Amino acid sequence: MTRRLAFLGPRGTNAEEAALRYDPSAELVPFPGISAVAAAVDSGMADGGVVPIENSLEGAVTETLDVLIHDAKLAICIELVLPIEHFLLAKPGLKAADVRRVYSHPQALAQCRGFIERCFPKAEMVAALSTAAAVEEMMQRDDSAAVGNKRAAEIYGAEVLARDIQERRGNVTRFVVLAANDHPPTGSDKTSLAFAFAVEDRPGLLVGALEEFSSRGINLSKIESRPSGDRLGTYIFLADVDGHRTDPALAEALERIQEQCSYFRILGSYPRYQKSG
């Protein structure tokens, strides 16, 4: 049976490209937002969902983090890393001097802000749900451009006004595949978790939790926080550590941390991304 993969659409997004790289044989189904992708997987409309979780320039994609924190039915089963090259696209025949608006996803606009402000200082930057949705919207207007990728230009018939317009080279986005279950151990894995403490904030709480990893020789590759949503000044911590949740040392560390927490969730164990070539 062909796997059905939901992705942050419409067609032409970087999420679609990540989905194609993950499983070229899958039936790809676009959805208008990250929460919609998660709902499609949660409801059984799709077997998995491809969403961005982190960009090397702009950091975490908070909507994806919030879905993982609050939707206890989904897990990360795969991570993919996709190089991102942004193009400035327009309707064929539109001159750069006539651009009055630039559409794109807020992260793409932020990644290209310097170029837009230098070359189009009077243009309004307009947020869209995705880079592909921005190209689709732009093609309906006679005074606008959009930041998108080459595939979106081909799909929607846009013309490339400028290429490689992001602020820094080496721009990459990390995508994850959300599914009902995470991945079996491979021997080269990562585990993502989210946790919040059971008592009021006091010195040493976070350090004590992290020492459960360091004392067992487990590498912590990332930690960040998100507001809990309960009240101001309370946070949920998110961490990535080396190893699979079933590895004995990591399983013991996770158990000790959970004992200290009012909220604890393993977001998934999955193969560590290996750059090919």
What does this protein structure show overall?
The protein is α/β, with parallel strands linked by helices and 277 residues long. It folds into 3 domains: 4-84 and 171-179, Periplasmic binding protein-like II (D-Maltodextrin-Binding Protein, domain 2, 3-Layer(aba) Sandwich), CATH 3.40.190; 87-163, D-Maltodextrin-Binding Protein, domain 2, CATH 3.40.190.10; 189-271, ACT domain (Alpha-Beta Plaits, 2-Layer Sandwich), CATH 3.30.70.260. Helix content is 28%, strand content 34%. It has helices at 14-22, 34-43, 62-70, 106-111, 113-119, 131-138, 150-156, 205-214, 248-259, and strands at residues 4-8, 27-31, 48-55, 59-60, 75-83, 87-90, 101-104, 124-127, 144-148, 159-163, 172-179, 189-197, 220-227, 235-242, 261-271. The strands form 3 sheets. Strands 1, 2, 3, 4, 5 and 11 form a 6-stranded mixed sheet that branches. A 5-stranded mixed sheet has the order 8-7-9-6-10. The chain has a 4-stranded antiparallel sheet with strand order 13-14-12-15, sandwiched between helices. A hairpin with a 3-residue loop joins strand 3 and strand 4. Helix 8 runs antiparallel to helix 9 (248-259). It is globular, with a radius of gyration of 20 Å. The protein starts with a strand and ends in a 6-residue tail after the last strand. The mean pLDDT is 91.
